[in-house]
Design a protein that fits this description.
This protein is an alpha/beta fold and 464 residues long. The chain contains 13 helices and 15 strands. The strands form three sheets. A ten-stranded mixed β-sheet has the order 7-6-5-4-8-1-9-10-2-11, with helices on one face.
Length: 464
């Protein structure tokens, strides 16, 4: 009888362990959100436009050291693949790029048994139909493929076809999210990826929002997204899904334009903290009550949610090639260690226990060393920043700032003046030499292609 009882207890225990319920997983990515744009990071003036987001943050854990890349695409590719930009590039993805290796499993492909949905911005490269989300584990994708467009642009995509729809994007994606979650069977695990277009430029008018005279609609853009976060929270509660839900909320990079990154230095497109350390939190019913309303100072990166989601779903996170790469040769940093048959495994780590038991870990436990970009590496408590961002081989990026275009125009005017008045005039020669020195100085500050080309123009002009 004793033996029979022990066998029954063992069987019951094994069954309970094996029947662990897979949680619903939600990733909300806010585009170009400033660190100080949300009330949960201290901006009380924005409580009226980030109230639902802040309420959700207070139900969870605010992450004070959550890192991403300094602009859109690499952050998005990092979340989907679990790999740092050093493995998939630092460039912005054009709609016809091949920037995510098709041999890699993105997070939706790992979450077997989940119903996965993607509503919002793409911007990860779609060279072929095989690159589309619906070919990579998502049941539905409704959004746009590029990095920036009007909030009412008809250039959108649904599953595998163009989608000519001109509703304000936040309303379109938000309403589709509500419709999908409303119809979802709570017994089936849900993965919802919600990368808003807001609050990225252009600052188009927001329906039902009237900014003060002379002010941009930036706060209204956040307000519109915040409203849907509140609707999502209530809907999950109504469907009895919230208690088994884990939510990650993050910006894709620091703010720019009307975004505020106080007290951090810098902004989007810079290697400073304001470009790469962003507003973020985790929430949901899976966060125990004793941790709700707390902060966590451990250094995390957006790549970590790949491994963490896999662990919560009960699936292995490893995604490396069967053929191991060649050993690293420090004397030959340009050596291709992967070749055609190998690829890097994920860089993210499972941070669940660091979230649940933060007092057991120091602030660098997840990533003692973290390569943020070509120019920035974090080692322990130190940050080595060698320069601002380098050349990403994207020609359109030369003209990203108005003042650079103005300077180029001035150079053209000087060259035209020299051509009209004669190149032997001493005054014009001195002016050109002075301008060359200015651009030479600027080129040490900004390693972009523009300064290289202008310096070259000046150097040639100075010697002819």
């Amino acid at each position: 009888l004793s033996l029979l009882l022990l066998l029954c207890l063992h069987t019951t225990s094994a069954s309970s362990s094996g029947d662990k319920k897979q949680p619903h997983l939600i990733m909300i990515l806010q585009d170009d959100l400033g660190f100080y744009d949300v009330a949960f990071n201290g901006n009380k003036n924005n409580e009226d436009v980030s109230g639902n987001i802040t309420s959700m943050a207070k139900e969870g854990i605010v992450l004070k050291n959550h890192y991403v890349f300094y602009w859109c695409s690499p952050t998005r590719r990092s979340f989907l693949t679990g790999r740092l930009p050093l493995h998939h590039g630092e460039m912005l993805s054009e709609d016809q790029n091949d920037d995510i290796d098709l041999r890699w499993n993105i997070i939706s492909q790992k979450l077997k048994g989940y119903s996965s949905y993607w509503f919002g911005k793409g911007h990860t490269g779609y060279k072929s139909m095989a690159h589309l989300p619906t070919h990579r584990g998502f049941k539905n994708f409704t959004g746009f493929l590029t990095g920036e467009q009007s909030y009412t642009s008809p250039t959108r995509w649904k599953d595998e076809n163009p989608f000519n729809h001109t509703d304000y994007s936040t309303d379109l994606f938000g309403n589709l999210m509500v419709e999908t979650v409303s119809a979802h069977d709570p017994t089936t695990p849900l993965f919802l990826y919600l990368p808003w277009q807001a609050v990225h430029s252009p600052y188009d008018p927001v329906p039902h929002w009237s900014p003060p005279s002379g002010k941009s609609p930036y706060r209204g853009m956040l307000w519109a997204a915040d409203a849907y976060v509140g609707i999502l929270r209530d809907l999950l509660d109504k469907k009895n899904m919230w208690d088994n839900t884990f939510v990650v909320y993050s910006a894709d990079n620091g703010g720019r334009g009307d975004g505020i990154n106080y007290p951090l230095r810098g902004e989007k497109r810079t290697n400073f903290e304001g470009g790469m350390r962003v507003a973020a939190f985790v929430s949901g019913g899976l966060v125990p009550s004793n941790l709700r309303g707390t902060t966590n100072n451990i250094r995390f990166h957006i790549v970590d949610w790949y491994a963490t989601f896999c662990d919560l779903a009960g699936v292995p996170s490893a995604d490396g090639s069967k053929i191991a790469p060649l050993p690293i040769d420090p004397s030959n940093p340009n050596k291709d260690i992967y070749g055609k048959n190998s690829w890097p495994d994920i860089d993210g780590v499972n941070v669940w226990d660091m979230l649940m038991n933060p007092s057991n870990y120091n602030s660098t436990a997840a990533h003692p060393t973290l390569v943020l970009s070509r120019e920035v590496i974090l080692q322990g408590q130190y940050k080595l920043l060698t320069s601002q961002r380098g050349n990403t081989h994207q020609v359109h990026d030369i003209f990203e700032a108005d003042w650079q275009v103005i300077l180029l125009f001035l150079f053209c005017r000087i060259m035209m003046t020299l051509n009209r008045n004669g190149r032997t005039q001493k005054g014009n020669g001195l002016r050109l030499l002075a301008m060359f020195k200015i651009v030479e100085m600027l080129s040490t500050m900004w390693r972009g292609e523009l300064w290289h080309h202008l310096s070259l123009v000046c150097l040639i002009s100075k010697t002819i």
